[in-house]
Amino acid sequence: MISVKELKNPHVVRRDLLASLVVFLVALPLCVGIAVASGVPAELGLVTGIVGGIVVGLLPGSKLQVSGPAAGLTVLVYEAVTEFGLATLGPIVLAAGLLQVVMGFARFGRWFRAISVSVVQGMLAGIGLVIVLGQLYAMADTAQPDTALAKLAGLPGLAAEIVTDTEAMTAFGLGAGTVAVLLIWPKLPARVRIVPAPLAAVGLATAVAALAGLRPMVADVNGLLHAIDLPGAAEFGNLANVAVIGTVLAFALIASAESLFSAAAIDRMHDGPRTNYDKELVAQGVGNTICGALGALPMTAVIVRSAANVQAGATTALSRVAHGVWLLLFAALLPAAIGVIPLASLAGILVHAGCKLVPWKEFGPLWREHRGEAVLLAVTALAIVVTNLFEGVVLGLLLAVVKSAWETSHVQLSTRELTGGRVVVTLTGNATFLRLPRILEQLEKLPQDQPIELDLTGLRHLDHACRVALENWARRHNHAEIEPVTIRR
Q: What parts of the sequence cross the membrane (predicted)?
């Protein structure tokens, strides 16, 4: 929230308003590009950016992170719009927002910090790969196949079309040029980098297309009010569909996780007040509830915009609120400007954003130091590509739980022979069903013609499955003429 004391300081106001302009210039092409990639009117991306700036910006939680449509939800939104229709998107987003509000008031925010980082990285990597596969087709102004595997299989045909079709080659050149500008821009002098890279890339591609007389595909723009379609009772009735409920849960959980992980990252970038996770979750929920009521895209806190906000020197929430005001003014006064941007250029921005979601540099060190975590990341990402976002994330979470259970169920078995031939078998650690095969294999190698004592006093945990299995082994192990195995607990 913005305090009156902060607004009375002209230095703070001037600095934050300048920062808001930077964030606005970063957010503008991303809002439009994400909307187009999600299969919805371009204006709806701006609506979400406006709500994320003005509404969420005024709510408590995090002062400096900026909310809006996120590349991380592009795949899920596209699937939802394709399967249920654009009219049902609003109720889905609204229901997800209300769920976020409930989770925030129930103090669930802090529990999102317990999600395996490898699963989150795998989720983002999988999303990034799906975005890249889809937007490569959009860069060539070509229709994309329905599934990620079909997109992957169709890449040779796409390459052939780009080489043989002049229009496809022209569009792909604009998209590739956009990616090249995004890669080169950070290496240019500081005075040039005052203009944000996404805006520069889109501006240059648009200028080249206009000056060269090219006619690439552009977004169909009808104005902000025309794009807003308030959902009706029939659309809300679709929430009774089990598949729609699953999508609502996916929206709420993934948007919440992405927002709160973004908050953790932004908190490391500044020395100001830390984020209150529960309040931030409520703020995100309120924003999504309003976006859903307007039929717009879902929102999350976005690391790219948030980092730009911090790096531009913002210290209060004024910058993120003002960036929403600039988006509103642009959408109201200059909507036609969106209609001249080549879709191939917007696709190039999404290809670049998708590549940045994949942790290429981190995977090697992770594989060398924590191989299990690297496998978890890779499996989650590939599962998302092969199946879908929701199923891939669920599989990743299940694997993380199994991995954690396996690693914490360490158990050691040692034997020593006492005078008189008695064998003492000692178990220490955590004995769970996951370790039963190894435990029983070692116990069954013990001699059956000697007295055996099974010492369990060193176990920190003994689950029911292990206890029953050990008791059964003790009853049947020794020969009838040898005294039964004794168990000491």
A: 17-37, 84-106, 118-138, 168-185, 197-218, 238-261, 281-304, 324-353, 374-402
Comparing CA positions, the residue from 255, 260, 240, 225 lying closest to residue 107 is 260
For tokens 């109201």, the residue is 332
Domain at 465, CATH number: 3.30.750.24
Which 3 state secondary structure label does DSSP give 302? Answer: strand
Query: Hunting for tokens 């050149």 — which residue is that?
Result: 173
Separation between Cα atoms, residue 363 and residue 371, nearest integer Å: 10
Of all helices (H) and strands (E), which one includes residue 428? strand 423-431
Extract the tokens encoding 273. Answer: 């007040």
Bridge partners of residue 425, in order along the sequence: 415, 454
- Helix then strand count (H, E) for the chain reads 22, 6
Same domain, 334 and 424: no
Nearest to 429 by CA among 411, 413, 455: 411
- Which amino acid belongs to residue 17? L
pLDDT in tens, 335-394: 777 778 888 888 888 888 788 878 888 888 888 888 888 898 899 889 888 877 677 878
What angle (nearest 5°) sits at the alpha carbon of residue 218, between those of residues 215 and 223?
A: 135
The residue among 402, 433, 452 that closes a domain is 402
- What letter does residue 39 receive in the DSSP assignment? T
pTM of the full structure: 0.72
**200 and 97 in one domain?**
yes
Mean pLDDT across the stretch 19-24? 84
In eight-state DSSP terms, residue 218 is B
Q: Which amino acid would we find at residue 405?
A: A
Check whether residue 280 and residue 361 sit in a common domain: yes
Could you tell me the two tokens for 173?
A: 């050149």
Q: What is the DSSP letter of 427?
A: E
Q: What is the pLDDT of residues 265-309, one digit of tens each?
A: 777 767 777 788 889 999 999 999 999 999 999 999 887 788 778
- Rounded CA-CA distance 358/365 in Å is 14
Cα–Cα distance, 123 to 128 (Å, whole number): 8
Tokens matching residue 265: 């990252």
Question: Is residue 247 within 8 Å of residue 393, measured between CB atoms?
Answer: no
Q: What letter does residue 342 receive in the DSSP assignment? A: B
Q: Mutual orientation of helices 117-139 and 166-184 as an angle, nearest 10°?
A: 140
Structural domain of 372? 4-402
Last residue of a domain, one of 357, 373, 402: 402
The whole-angstrom separation of Cα 43 and Cα 90 is 14
Q: DSSP code of 483?
A: P
Q: With residue 438 as reference, give the H or E element that holds it.
A: helix 436-443
Are 321 and 349 contained in the same domain? yes
Q: Based on the domain organization, do 260 and 395 belong to the same domain?
A: yes
Cross-strand partners of 427: 413
